[in-house]
Amino acid sequence: MEAVNLFPLFLSLKVATIATVCALVVGLPISYYLSRSHHKWSDILDSLLTLPIVLPPTVLGYYLLVLLGRSSPIGRWLEETFGILIVFTPTGAVVAAFVVALPFFVKTARAAFASIDQQLLNAARVLGRSEWDIFFTVVIPLSWRNIASATTLVFARALGDFGTTLMVAGSIPNETMTMPIAIYDALLAGNKKMANILVIIMTSVSVVLLYTMKRLEKRMMRGENDALRRH
Prior knowledge:
The chain is mainly alpha-helical. It has helices spanning 7-36, 40-54, 57-68, 73-82, 90-114, 118-126, 131-159, 163-169, 179-188, 192-230. Belongs to the binding-protein-dependent transport system permease family. CysTW subfamily.
């Protein structure tokens, strides 16, 4: 029996995890800004952030190649200053997964932030709370359920990305080949048996991870409800 190389699976999990953390760190302040701002620049920013949902993955990947390639100003600066290469490296896979997944986090978190009663925030300001304090002690606690759902959505989207990752990171075996690309590569080589095995592994791992994340979310909700009842 042909041995199954699990490197693409571990790389996919690593890429999805890093992309999710990055989306959480970057997406939270952007979502909050968009939920409170009515300036035209916020509409422009929102439109740009929505583009990865609308554009075909190949177009998005092409933009990233042009923007971050070694011949681009940003790519040259990253390579000469920090020695960082983006294109056709595992870092490129993280960047691609982050870009395609970020809009899903921003859309969900923004809706959660926008639903918070403005009077609560004004009351906190009257009490002398700073904006940072309000964000971490009022806004986040009131919207953590939606943020948790958004985080799960981002992880799932990043884990399954194919087109943009292929364009930016390529399909170098044991280096940049993620699980979706490995499945495509097996099909392209006519190895249907290996493709079936990889599909089953990918599906099983995804179901287990998403189920675990959902159970953790529900457990946290029960803990919060119990704490409210005790008070």
